[in-house]
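tokens incoming
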């Protein structure tokens, strides 16, 4: 469907869809394709840039002068928000969880290079500190635009309704499943809403990176419903109708284990494609396991939606070498 919401161009679209023939053969089937949203084109790329096209457009319409958001130390969303702010000439404040590390690396290094003002939440929640920062900016006469974790709002998720339409126009291949990482729920919700609006009948399967199954399903259902409302559709999604898998949480958020390491190695050595230790590596590990266990059959065609995150690899150098 054509989305008429205000939008600015931050991405290079459409991102490619490519076959992963060698990886598929190594795993004994099925046919695997990849949607390369690691190539969206803004400061290391990733899925959040699509969302920021809508969120930053809204910020500019509201005469904001500062983008403020939250994330973890290796947040891809924060890095892309900082890049978007730099591109359109806005200030950017990032509220990151915990305390500053001894040395910046990966996404945090790029946050600094992109000119972000970084605040640390310490022992408090990021949201509490962000609320204080927003009020402080307003008290100083500025006009902040707060963006929730991951840009995961109905407006942000609308970007993945557009992305689903983009994918459907790119290929005539039968696609039985779309597999991708899911965390704050916005990308997942957008793809679910987009599948509904575009008439896609395959499985839209989010591999949870950090949330338990019921929590993730509730978040995604709420955002997807809000997104459809925003686009003029009255569809209501229920948590039970959201397809998700939380069997691959491993050691917890941002803890790279054996499964993630193997996925990183296989994608790199068989396809020359890099996946990250936190998001795409965990989802790829889930994909690989589902294939090996026969949950995904050999005669299926599967799309792996690469959501980016590659800069985080540099923060895990000692664990990867």
């Amino acid at each position: 469907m054509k989305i008429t919401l205000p939008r600015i161009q931050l991405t290079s679209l459409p991102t490619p869809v490519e076959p992963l023939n060698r990886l598929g053969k190594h795993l004994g089937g099925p046919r695997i394709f990849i949607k390369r949203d690691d190539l969206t084109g803004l400061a290391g790329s990733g899925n959040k840039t699509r969302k920021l096209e809508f969120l930053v457009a809204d910020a500019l319409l509201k005469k904001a002068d500062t983008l403020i958001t939250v994330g973890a130390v290796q947040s891809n969303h924060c890095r892309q928000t900082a890049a978007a702010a730099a591109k359109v000439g806005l200030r950017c404040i990032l509220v990151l969880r915990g305390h500053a590390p001894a040395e910046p690396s990966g996404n945090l290094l790029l946050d600094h290079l992109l000119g972000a003002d970084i605040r640390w939440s310490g022992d408090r929640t990021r949201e509490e500190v962000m609320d204080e920062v927003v009020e402080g900016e307003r008290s100083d006469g500025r006009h902040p635009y707060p963006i929730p974790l991951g840009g995961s709002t109905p407006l942000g998720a609308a970007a993945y309704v557009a992305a689903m339409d983009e994918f459907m126009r790119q290929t005539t291949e039968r696609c039985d499943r779309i597999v991708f990482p899911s965390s704050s729920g916005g990308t997942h919700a957008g793809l679910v809403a987009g599948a509904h609006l575009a008439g896609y009948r395959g499985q839209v399967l989010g591999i949870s990176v950090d949330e338990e199954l019921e929590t993730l399903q509730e978040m995604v259902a709420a955002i997807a419903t809000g997104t459809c409302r925003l686009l003029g559709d009255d569809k209501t999604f229920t948590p039970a109708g959201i397809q998700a898998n939380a069997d691959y949480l491993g050691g917890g958020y941002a803890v790279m284990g054996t499964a993630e390491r193997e996925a990183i190695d296989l994608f790199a050595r068989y396809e020359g494609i890099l996946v990250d230790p936190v998001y795409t590596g965990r989802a790829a590990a889930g994909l690989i396991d589902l294939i090996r266990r026969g949950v995904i059959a050999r005669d299926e065609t599967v799309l792996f939606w690469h959501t980016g995150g590659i800069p985080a690899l540099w923060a895990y150098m000692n664990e990867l070498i």
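note: The chain has eleven helices and ten strands.
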